[in-house]
Amino acid sequence: MRSSPPRRAERGFGLPKAPSTITSVFAARVGENKDSTAVKRGGATLSYGELDEMSDALARALTGLGVAPEDRVGIFMERGVEVIVALVGTLKSGCAYAPLDIRSPAARLRTIIAECDTRLVLVDTEARAAALRESFGDGPEIQVIGDLLTRELPNFAGHPPVRPQQLAYVIHTSGSTGRPKGVAISHQDVVAFAADDCWAGIDRRVLLQSPLEFDASVYQILVPLLRGGRVVVAPPGRLDPATIVRTIAEERITSTFITPSMFNVMTEESPDAFAHGCQVWMGGEVASPSAVARTLRASGPHSVVNVYGPTEVTVFATRHLVTEVGDGPVPIGSELAGVRTYVLDERLRPVGPDVVGELYLAGRGVARGYWARPELTAGRFVADPFAHDGTRMYRTGDLVRRRADGLLEYFGRQDNQVKLRGFRIELGEIEHQLTRRDEVARAAVVTLPDKHGDQNLVGYVVPAAPATADSVGDDWRARLLDGLRTALPGHMVPAALVVVDRLPLTNNGKLDVRALPAPVYEGAGRAPRTETERLLCQVFADVLGVARVGIDDSFFELGGHSLTATRAAAAIASVLGVRPGLQDLFAAPTAAALAARLGSPQAAGSPGRIPLVATPPEGRIELSHAQRRLWLLYQLMADADPGYHIPLVFRLHGPVDTEALRAALGDVTARHETLRTVFPADGETTHQLILDPSDARAPLTVTDCRPAELDGLLARAVRAPFDLESELPLRLTLFRTGEEHVLLVVLHHIAADGWSFTPLFRDLSRAYAARSAGTAPEFAPLPVQYRDYAAWQRRVLGDRSDPHSVLAQQLGHWKTRLAGIPLCTPLPGDRPRPEIAGGEGAVLDFEIPAGLRRALDALARSSGSTLFIVLQAALAGLLTRLGGGEDIVVGTPTAGRSDEALDDLVGFFVNTVVLRTDTSGDPAFGELLRRVREAWIPAYAHQDVPFDLLVETVNPPRSLAHHPVFQIAFGLLNTAGSALELDGTAHHWRLAGTGAARFDLAFDLVGRTDRDGAPGALDVSLEYATDLFDHATVRRLADRYLRLLREVAAAPDRRLSALPLDDDPPPAD
């Protein structure tokens, strides 16, 4: 049992020691700081005087509408300046504010408004007002704040008096019975919270990015306003880590609150995010010691404060300024001023040091209770037996222990409540929404780690008899999730729902979480009825890597994309003798539908292709079409252009056995002929010369250097030219700085592509492990080599002079499809396009977070498309919005590995196809998805045409100022993980910049996978021509792309013109 002694404020601007009100303290700050900035959002500011006047006007208007002291006024607004005016004005009127989540379903809003007896709701737009009026009918009065601020009230008699004990706000948390609970907090508790001297020095510029219904917003708004500081309002909408990091730097933020989930992602991307004077307060979930340690190293020992505080005790109750991270959990610290903490056993007796008990909180900040819920209040707010003054303490339900040094450590929950991404959730409320349906007998909701190690909600349901887990289908599970989405906010809807016949229990009758089956993503449709359906189901399962596929399961909903669809078509050809086109797979994505379609004479697919088989090397070995194009460019440029270098950087942990690595490199070049191939000139032509493994030693250079020299040495090594006539197309350099080992792998594109990374680094890892152990690696033989592919490709395509050949037919398609394309896509650059492109470039790296990627995956599945189509449609929409016209032409790489024999081979198989998108008519994004999909299917069906022949056939006007046909490239590398594993540790590569740019803009997206193999974030490398663009312009372009992706994931039915790109709201539909 501890209490914090009173502490003396370090700054003497008159925060009261006696109980006081928010409004009176704010009035004192206005008197001292009338012309100082109180609120800032972007370029807009409000001084203390202006905020005072606007909130006065709102208070007068509310009083004129007949509100009474302690009436609850709902605030239903997007984050912005008006939210703060609404909050302060509501308090001045004597009312309490009750925030409402603008993303909550109407059913939950009705419940909260009824629970709180809210009589009036403030909104920021007329559209939001109209939507609420339609939903609530005769419910509370809805007022647009802008209308109230201009309302004239000549007979205003003055604001009603406000008492310290008066209600300030009611914030709702999840309830175990299915009803949310409104926590009632008084003025005096907020003032006492703001008076704590822990804020001294960090209250100058506080970032508001939490939603108003999350009580961290109380700190972010009222602490700076009551202490003479500034509230900096983050951009509206859902915020990605990069936006928060940038805002912190640009606005010189001194403090803010961030949930650990967001903190972890931010510090992975920007460990020094808080290195410039910002102290981050973090809580709401268990802190990650590794993320905190990473931040302390980069941002300093006073950059992170781990906090703890339930809504029932006015925001934060304990804090710990982290200076170092030990072996155990990050402590939640010691009490804020006036708070008392007790660690008690089940009989309310204090436990000793290092003994786990339940945490009780008393003293400053304890809420009145739950609004209009006396029975709940009595169960949680109990008499404090240690105070002897009749005050109460709050039973948190959290298990903690007090260390010998007095700091508290958190050990989890005692009840069925969790805190997830900053929101407190009663799992019982979700379970109640499931079991209230007659078709559900029992339900349990638990939290399980996802691919990042972050917690996710997973629901388990037992169907009511006579139904069983086997008898209900996926549509039943989908209906349950849809029902939850209409009743609960998004953060309370489980990420997965698993149907079981019983819930496993422990010996003492509690749910046995460890015995619950893990969510498995697999098909669950009907069993095959025919041999054709059986073979198609088997192909789908093999290609997608799932356990089972039913005849009604969609190939694309199970995770299929362009590359896997191409492989599926090839596999189907091998087992059925007929090859479906991609248009067949999209039109009939289930085994049942595809079997029927392939059996139809009108859509029977094409005959199987010539088989790809290994052949002995005989005579002159010709180049593939792709290699021929690069060879011609090499001859023209003498490899002075490093744009066709592929530089991959690995930052290695621990020592490296260089001799084992050198030997492993030899093993890999021996295995893959393309890595030991040179291209000697035969006059104006060349051929493949495959060297004997004993004569082919790819270089591994070891360079010792100082850390300050590393970037320069990397840049020179990346740009060093290849002599393709005599030098192997692969080289490695190991840089040793004394602090770390950095491995640079540089491949020439003539020998490899992005899909080669997986087999290359998998084989190199296996060979290194074997050589480190003193043995030689044992590889399964490759079914074919690259020379087999080059010969096979020519046989498959045929001669362009033969009108019946694949090549001639596909060239005919492209000549028609690309007729009349724009000469050049206009983009808002920083400089006019030069007459001759300089070829210099730079790279901007950013990330599409895993959560957003999952939302885009869901949109792709629901729209019958792929992740690539969604990403490309968003880019087309963005380019149109930025002035690129309504005929958007983008080049995209295709894997070119249409036969499974090529899966494990290193080589240059990739080809470029052209996607032409019509964005005219301001379509809704869902319509744009349909257009892109309809353009994508024939493009991929005609992907075999070498790009140089396509350009020759389309014959656009040539210019030295830009790339022919398209100037913007967009590629998504959708392969398995391609990490390099050394001594049991996986190391992930990043693409280094070459200093060159082949296009105006080139987006290269790489899908990452987590440890369990599930999809993670998308890494984006945006290469841009420095002839045209500055870094800041490209950064803004990337931000707009991310914003557009978030918006379309949330609302794909909105028109392009209505999707916001910046902080300003979009025009109305």
UniProtKB/TrEMBL annotation:
<dbReference type="GO" id="GO:0003824">
    <property type="term" value="F:catalytic activity"/>
</dbReference>
<keyword id="KW-0596">Phosphopantetheine</keyword>
<dbReference type="InterPro" id="IPR020806">
    <property type="entry name" value="PKS_PP-bd"/>
</dbReference>
<dbReference type="Pfam" id="PF00668">
    <property type="entry name" value="Condensation"/>
</dbReference>
<dbReference type="Pfam" id="PF13193">
    <property type="entry name" value="AMP-binding_C"/>
</dbReference>
<dbReference type="GO" id="GO:0044550">
    <property type="term" value="P:secondary metabolite biosynthetic process"/>
</dbReference>
<dbReference type="InterPro" id="IPR045851">
    <property type="entry name" value="AMP-bd_C_sf"/>
</dbReference>
<dbReference type="InterPro" id="IPR000873">
    <property type="entry name" value="AMP-dep_synth/lig_dom"/>
</dbReference>
<dbReference type="InterPro" id="IPR020845">
    <property type="entry name" value="AMP-binding_CS"/>
</dbReference>
<protein>
    <submittedName>
        <fullName>Amino acid adenylation domain-containing protein</fullName>
    </submittedName>
</protein>
<dbReference type="InterPro" id="IPR025110">
    <property type="entry name" value="AMP-bd_C"/>
</dbReference>
<dbReference type="GO" id="GO:0043041">
    <property type="term" value="P:amino acid activation for nonribosomal peptide biosynthetic process"/>
</dbReference>
<keyword id="KW-0597">Phosphoprotein</keyword>
<dbReference type="GO" id="GO:0005829">
    <property type="term" value="C:cytosol"/>
</dbReference>
<dbReference type="Pfam" id="PF00550">
    <property type="entry name" value="PP-binding"/>
</dbReference>
<dbReference type="GO" id="GO:0017000">
    <property type="term" value="P:antibiotic biosynthetic process"/>
</dbReference>
<dbReference type="InterPro" id="IPR036736">
    <property type="entry name" value="ACP-like_sf"/>
</dbReference>
<dbReference type="GO" id="GO:0008610">
    <property type="term" value="P:lipid biosynthetic process"/>
</dbReference>
<dbReference type="InterPro" id="IPR006162">
    <property type="entry name" value="Ppantetheine_attach_site"/>
</dbReference>
<dbReference type="InterPro" id="IPR009081">
    <property type="entry name" value="PP-bd_ACP"/>
</dbReference>
<comment type="similarity">
    <text>Belongs to the ATP-dependent AMP-binding enzyme family.</text>
</comment>
<dbReference type="GO" id="GO:0031177">
    <property type="term" value="F:phosphopantetheine binding"/>
</dbReference>
<dbReference type="InterPro" id="IPR023213">
    <property type="entry name" value="CAT-like_dom_sf"/>
</dbReference>
<dbReference type="InterPro" id="IPR001242">
    <property type="entry name" value="Condensation_dom"/>
</dbReference>
<dbReference type="Pfam" id="PF00501">
    <property type="entry name" value="AMP-binding"/>
</dbReference>
<dbReference type="InterPro" id="IPR010071">
    <property type="entry name" value="AA_adenyl_dom"/>
</dbReference>
<dbReference type="GO" id="GO:0072330">
    <property type="term" value="P:monocarboxylic acid biosynthetic process"/>
</dbReference>
<feature type="domain" description="Carrier">
    <location>
        <begin position="527"/>
        <end position="602"/>
    </location>
</feature>
